[in-house]
Specification:
CATH topology of the largest domain: Hypothetical protein af1432
Number of strands: 19
CATH architecture of the largest domain: Orthogonal Bundle
Number of helices: 32
Distance between the termini: 66 Å
Strand content: 15-25%
Strand order of the largest sheet: 1-2-5-4-3
Radius of gyration: 31 Å
Structural class: alpha+beta
Length: 754
């Protein structure tokens, strides 16, 4: 028996030692200072702390910190401090050691990073606390002082995604959803493009496994055609680049599976109609670093003589790098097969930055700070501002942060010609707040390219913007509707909140003075009566309206308050205000009664079967995404203990997965075509005689499906419309769409939300 135990233990130790040796080898091959002793010390400490503990997959727990450290070292390119913190990142959370212990042994900096990576309990969101949002907030707070915290967290998330197969389905949806919603955009914002792409693909793989496999198989099936197209396209380019005497390499870049699926969804087209799957990357090594920028444009001019460039698709990220440091020249060329192909031109240095993000800047930086670090500092400053006044609601908080993570950017100019970087879709109002809070809060309009525009005007790259202000102007509530940047929205919300509080205090004083002057005693029902009279939901809204003089207290209020209260009136007030909206009985009780769900019967660790009987009695189909049998779905236990069924890719479900992942249930359809669901089908094509008759014939007669509503419009020989009809499941929808596509003049057929 002993002979059976010892070898397995030895094999386990050998696997751990080999993984650590690989980490050391990769670290020694990097350009960092060779601080092997402290890394070895951190490994030994973590190995001892996690001894005997297994991951869900069955492997020793220490293999996870080792894998995270390996990603931090090899894929992000960080040094010994980050590697040590990665090795130790779960010690405080999962063992009896404290942050103080880590500080005593490894010093303040490593301890601070480990503390930032350690989950917390309790928080700022009160009864609606979201542990996920709390932990993310703590992570961001620590990140503000040391960017390595978030880089290690992304490495941690990447390894968790790579090993997600061993988790329960409901945990898979929670982690995959949170990754897609928060961590992939965060990796992108920090310039970790390869990691961002892998996080997206892995999330998609677990949320939509069938679609993932389908696209993967189609990519494999079309690989030879792509290689042939790549070779034909690049052959004349190579000849011309050789003449320039540059040292270069040309790579084929294939669009990621997630990006392909995303485009199929947004454009409502099949895989076969995605024409930008192949892109080309030219990476060169300049003989002189001073000529790097000139070399980019020389290559651009050379290849533009071979193929015609698209006039609107030149992206110069060389002269004006993105905020995450990304540099490249993007040009789209018309290939001989009639398809547009994007070509990215970048130096080896630029390629390193694109692959490893901000970490790569530290490798190339010499001496003091750089412009790129300035961009990072600006971003961290914005994060700090958001954290200073977080939203009370977890999902609002995550939304505000997420707004600041998108890296698609535009460049605009001040009247003096200074360049400002803003997120895409920014408005003149966003620009005003990016300059200064005072300018934003007092702006009344803007001039874009010398023409007067409203504050809601969306800016384009290259616009010159002048903000017009007035001292009498105040922040308007409607500004929240068209402010898009996190900075502007946070500042507007803060100012409006402050004004509401001030008006509420004023309102309290004014109401007290009014009651005193009119000699009216407040028996505790005055506010309720005034709310009823002026149709306000609560006392706070009433007091704000009095404070900002929307309501002027006068004879009408005085007379109403002096009336003798009847028993019926009291009863009415009690019904309207003595209970919360949640407690109030609905008018039609049988329809609106909360669904009773026995929490004991729902095992979130098991897959919930969605049967006909339970769909009719127990579960609620989400109005935001209208799921039907066959859709990839999940369940969410809401505050009223109801199970709401959402599509997995639904935007609301994405927020839920990132904020309340512990309430997610894995679900599976089991309906057997007995229930009917309403869906919308969008059609578009060339108008012709008898087309409508053909459409209804196919749906009603051939497929025996009931049409509920049909709306068709024609304009200049082109028709488009929507058909609302009853179906049993996704297979019905596919059958209908495929049959409609067979009609001669119909060019586009897709299922849409509404």
């Amino acid at each position: 028996m002993d002979n059976n135990i010892v070898p397995s233990h030895t094999v386990e130790e050998e696997i751990i030692d080999n993984a650590f040796q690989q980490l050391l080898n990769d670290y020694l091959n990097s350009k960092h200072r060779k601080k092997v002793d402290i890394i070895t010390k951190a490994f030994n400490f973590a190995n001892q702390a996690h001894k005997g503990i297994k991951r869900r997959s069955g492997e020793p727990y220490i293999m996870h910190p080792l894998a995270v450290a390996q990603i931090v070292c090899s894929e992000i390119g960080l040094g010994s401090t980050s590697i040590c913190a990665a090795l130790l990142h779960d010690v405080v959370e999962d063992t009896d050691y404290t942050v103080e212990d880590i500080e005593n042994i490894f010093g303040h900096k490593i301890a601070q990073i480990v503390d930032g990576l350690t989950k917390i309990s309790g928080g700022i969101f009160g009864d609606r606390a979201s542990a996920q949002a709390e932990n993310f907030k703590k992570l961001l707070l620590t990140m503000s002082s040391d960017i390595r915290v978030i880089l290690i967290k992304i490495a941690d998330r990447l390894h968790n995604m790579r090993t997600l197969g061993s988790m329960l389905p409901n945990k898979q949806y929670k982690i995959a959803g949170e990754t897609l919603y928060i961590y992939a955009p965060l990796a992108n914002r920090l310039g970790l493009y390869k990691i961002k792409t892998e996080l997206e693909n892995l999330s998609f793989k677990y949320e939509h496994p069938e679609e993932y496999i389908e696209i993967e198989e189609k990519l494999i099936a079309t690989a030879d055609d792509r290689e042939k197209a790549f070779n034909e396209f690049t052959a004349p380019i190579r000849i011309q680049l050789d003449k320039l005497g540059l040292k270069y390499r040309i790579l084929a870049r294939v669009k990621s599976i997630y990006s392909i699926w995303n485009k199929m969804q947004s454009k409502h087209v099949p895989f076969e109609e995605i024409f930008d799957i192949l892109a080309v990357r030219i990476i060169f090594d300049p003989a002189d670093i001073e000529e790097e920028l000139n070399d980019c444009f020389d290559i651009y001019v050379t290849i533009s003589k071979i193929y015609k460039p698209h006039p609107d698709r030149l992206r110069d990220w060389v002269s004006h790098p993105k905020a995450n440091g990304y540099q490249a020249l993007h040009v789209t060329l018309m290939a001989n097969n009639g398809h547009w192909i994007e070509v990215q031109i970048r130096s080896e240095r630029m390629n390193d930055v694109a692959e490893q993000g901000f970490a790569a800047h530290w490798k190339y930086k010499e001496g003091g700070g750089s412009e790129d670090e300035g961009e990072l500092e600006k971003w961290l400053k914005t994060i700090k501002e958001i954290l200073e006044d977080p939203q009370p609601d977890a999902m609002d908080f995550l939304d505000t942060i997420k707004l600041n993570l998108f890296a698609s950017e535009i460049f605009v100019f001040t009247p003096k010609g200074e360049i400002k970087t803003l997120p895409q879709n920014s408005t003149a109002l966003d620009f005003a707040f990016s300059l200064h809070t005072d300018i934003g809060s007092h702006c009344i309009g803007a001039k874009v390219n010398h023409k007067l525009v409203p504050l809601s005007h969306k800016l384009q790259s290259g616009d010159q913007v002048e903000i017009l202000t007035s001292k009498s102007q105040r922040v308007q509530p409607q500004w929240e509707l068209f402010a898009t940047t996190a900075r502007a929205r946070t500042k507007i919300a803060f100012i409006l909140k402050k004004e509401r509080k001030n008006n509420q205090k004023k309102g309290e004083t004014m109401l007290e003075e009014f009651l005193k002057n009119e000699d009216i005693q407040d028996d505790g029902t005055v506010a309720m009566k005034l709310c009823k009279m002026h149709n306000f939901k609560n006392e706070e809204e009433l007091l704000i309206a009095i404070g900002n003089k929307t309501i002027l207290l006068g004879d009408a209020e005085k007379n109403m308050l002096r009336e003798k209260q009847s028993a019926g009136w009291k009863k009415l007030l009690t019904f309207s205000f003595g209970s919360t909206a949640k407690d109030k009985k609905p008018e039609n009780e049988s329809e609106a009664k909360p669904v009773e769900v026995d929490k004991e019967k729902i095992n979130t660790k098991k897959i919930l079967k969605l049967t006909e009987d339970e769909l009719q009695k127990k579960y609620v189909m989400a109005d935001c995404c209208h799921p039907i049998p066959g859709d990839d779905v999940l369940g969410y236990i809401d505050e009223n203990e109801r199970v709401i069924i959402h599509k997995r890719q639904c935007p609301i479900a994405a927020k839920i997965k990132s904020s309340y992942g512990n309430r997610i249930i894995a679900t599976e359809w089991d309906t057997h075509k007995s229930l009917s669901f309403l869906v919308y089908i969008y059609i578009k094509g060339i108008d012709s005689m008898g087309l409508l008759n053909e459409v209804t014939q196919v749906i009603s007669r051939q497929l025996n499906v009931n049409i509920r509503k049909l709306n068709i419009e024609t304009d200049d020989g082109i028709f488009e419309g929507k058909i609302q009809l009853w179906v049993h499941d996704v297979e019905d929808v596919k059958s209908i769409c495929n049959n409609l596509r067979l009609i001669k003049n119909i060019k586009i057929v897709n299922r849409v939300e509404s």
